[in-house]
Amino acid sequence: MKIPKTEVIIVGAGFSGIAAAKKLFEAGISFKILEARDRIGGRVYTNYLKEDLYVDLGGQWIGPTQDRMYELCKEYGISYFETYDEGKNILNLRGKIRTYKGIIPKMDPVSLINLDILMRKMERMARQINVHTPWSHPKAQKWDQLTLEDFLRKNSKTKSCYEVIKIGCETIFACELHEISLLHALFYIRSGKSLDCLINIQGGAQQHRIEGGMQRIAEAMATPFRDHIIFNSPVEKVIQSTDHTDVISGENRFSSNRVILAVPPPLLKKIHFEPGLSSEKSELLDNYAMGRVGKCFMIYQTPFWREDSFSGQVVSDDPLTHQTLFDCSTVDGKYGILMGFTIGNRADEYFGRSEEDRKKRMISQLVQYFGEKAKDPIQYIDFTMSDETWSQGCYAGLMPVGAWTTWREAYRKPEGNLHFAGTEAATVWHGYIEGAVRAGEAAALEIIKKKNKEEA
């Protein structure tokens, strides 16, 4: 079936594609959005279990300097609230459980000093990175040939220091630390303001949650142009000609002047392009794996741990369960929800088990931390984007050793009538929803500027 020509085709109705569409809609430029799923939101996915109970199976937090997200909340009248951050945190290190307050766990003095020095060193190094050209740093080649794991091992003088910084970094990057280069880690930290910001709740990237779930924002953004979205339409082929570009999905053929591709890197690789993508972009896509993270929610009648002065936050090196836990209860505290991140190899092992086994394992862990009350949840639910066909991982694509200095800006660089978005194309808040929005808007603005220039 031939669809009448439109000016722009957007592939993907995640936050990046919707943000691009919003800009085009406001500029009066015609477009269609092709979305493989039956919903919008992409790597953001709010699951309503009851009318007054939901969980964010994908991205869920916003924090200071994520200016576009706060502006969107204001524009659409969507409220946000503080992530619960009161009381004692828990550290489970080599089977020994202890409590602490603040961001730094209780450890022996040597490990504490080592951890402070190491974090400060990473901050200093990250501040030197230009987020637009991370490969331009004088030590870029050296840092890009070193894995983050090798760097942390070299600079950790005690086992406790290494284990704690390892858990923190796994939670930030959603991968095993040998899977990314030190340069990518420093770029990511700089892109998200600072290491302290990425780790923290108060004043950090986890400070606020959205009332009603993160997907509400994408839904509100898309409301004026909902009829422009064609669901259940995975793109199989993109054909560029001299005067137009065709996008093929199943039996449907869409024609446009330009295309914005706002999908995760593995999905981009599955699309057949004529002519083919540049060798640089193709080579990068061949080496561009996604992060691996599972979110596990244990739901209770009340957030009972608060009564015992626990924050619900846990940091653990237990290889059988979760790296970190957070209190993700409803804003009114009507339901108590503890959410655990299981990441990298832990996620692979965890989701290789049955759901019943995963539930039993998490309950056992929570009883160990919060006592017998944790034995009686009202529901357990978990989810990993790695199992979702149209995401294949989360939070973002991972730049492996040598990638930044070899392929540089290849991912976000336009090719002919093709423009690239998604959080992987962002230089600010790369890997976050804020980055996805910024990248989508940037792709749309490229098209708007080119159109204005052509019409001048």
Largest sheet at a glance? 8 strands, mixed
CATH C-level class of the largest domain: Alpha Beta
Euclidean distance between termini CA atoms: 35 Å
Q: Tell me, what's the shape?
A: globular
Spans of at least 5 consecutive residues with low confidence: none
Helix vs. strand class: alpha/beta
Q: Can you identify the CATH superfamily of the largest domain?
A: FAD/NAD(P)-binding domain
What does the oligomeric state look like here? single chain
- Based on the coordinates given, report the CATH architecture of the largest domain: 3-Layer(bba) Sandwich
Number of strands: 22
Descriptive notes:
By secondary structure, the protein is an alpha/beta fold. The protein folds into three domains: 2-42 and 214-277 and 415-455, 3-Layer(bba) Sandwich (FAD/NAD(P)-binding domain), CATH 3.50.50.60; 46-67 and 77-85 and 292-387, Polyamine Oxidase, Chain A, domain 2 (Alpha-Beta Complex), CATH 3.90.660; 106-199, Guanine Nucleotide Dissociation Inhibitor, domain 1, CATH 1.10.405.10. The chain has 16 helices and 22 strands. It has helices at 15-26, 67-76, 109-127, 140-144, 148-155, 159-173, 182-191, 195-199, 215-222, 265-270, 279-286, 304-307, 345-350, 355-370, 403-407, 433-455, and strands at 2-11, 31-34, 46-50, 53-56, 61-62, 80-82, 88-93, 96-100, 208-210, 229-230, 237-240, 245-249, 252-261, 272-274, 289-290, 293-300, 310-316, 324-327, 336-343, 379-384, 397-398, 418-420. Strands 1, 2, 10, 11, 12, 13, 14 and 22 form an eight-stranded mixed beta sheet that branches. Strands 8-7-17-18-19-16-20 form a seven-stranded mixed beta sheet. Strands 5-9-6 form a three-stranded antiparallel beta sheet, covered by helices on one side. Strand 3 (46-50) and strand 4 (53-56) form a beta hairpin. Helix 1 runs parallel beside helix 16, helix 3 (109-127) packs across helix 6 and helix 3 (109-127) crosses helix 7. The longest helix has 23 residues, at 433-455. The radius of gyration is 22 Å and the shape is globular.
